[in-house]
Amino acid sequence: MIAHAIFQRSKGAIIDDTALHETAAPQAAQTQAPETAPSRRRSRSRRRATITFYIGEALRDRARAAYRSTSLAEQDASWSEMIAKALLAEVERREAEHNEGDQFAGDAGPLPPGRPISC
């Protein structure tokens, strides 16, 4: 599994979650003739995407310390993979609690900026 992560102090973290779902291509597929080889374009679910978010410095430092202390034991390929695992766990928790375990329908459109308005 390979993941790419860049941490920018002033701009947040850029996260790639494909490392949680990618597997190495079988060697047989690599040796096929060009006309039968799988397409080089990734399916939408396997494309890499970046997200930017802001968190407090204390949480960032705590998370980085946890990553540095446990990445080998947890077999994290990268900082990005650890963050993606955490995000996936929260998404799955919300799907289970609010949508009978099913994925929510959605699109790739932008999220509204700022904090949600309380009712």
- Extended strand count: 3
Give the CA-based shape. Answer: globular
Rounded mean pLDDT score: 74
Number of helices: 3
Write down the Rg: 18 Å
Question: How would you sum up this structure, described in words?
Answer:
With 119 residues, this protein is mainly alpha-helical. It has one domain (6-98). The chain contains three helices and three strands, in the order ββαβαα. The protein has helices at 27-30, 57-74, 79-98, and strands spanning 6-8, 12-14, 52-53. A three-stranded antiparallel sheet has the order 1-2-3, with no helix packed on it. The protein is globular and about 40 Å long. The termini are far apart. 9% of the residues are buried. The model is unreliable at 1-19 and 21-37 (pLDDT under 50).
How do the strands and helices of this protein lay out in sequence?
Layout: E1 6-8, E2 12-14, H1 27-30, E3 52-53, H2 57-74, H3 79-98
Antiparallel strand pairs: 1-2, 2-3
Quick synopsis:
35% of the residues lie in helices and 7% in strands.
List keywords for this structure.
mainly alpha, 3 helices, 7% strand, disordered N terminus
